């Protein structure tokens, strides 16, 4: 048995339209509707499926709750450019830039909150700041 990559994950959200707006306008993802009326967000080779709280698709997590997510998303842009974009979209940076260690080594991260207060880390492997 060997896992290669993450294909998709699911976020349970209070307001689908508000969530789609945040991730498309704020983070540049692409909205998608599939299986009739299900909603998702695409980026790179992955996607985030969205479940409306109280109306989750089956099977689902044991305790689906808006605001319980903590995700790290990787960008190939300099974080100064990301910060400018976020500012223009009215999205506050909660923390960063700060040095972190990701799956592929040292990276630099910014942290924001989505409409459900999920913690969204936006990371770049371009240049990690010096520690100290």
UniProtKB/TrEMBL annotation:
The protein's name: Glyoxalase
Pfam families (alphabetical): Glyoxalase
Domain VOC residues, every copy: 5-125
InterPro entries reported in the protein's UniProt record: Glyas_Bleomycin-R_OHBP_Dase (IPR029068), Glyas_Fos-R_dOase_dom (IPR004360), GlyoxalaseI/FosfomycinResist (IPR050383), VOC_core (IPR037523)
Domain of life: Bacteria
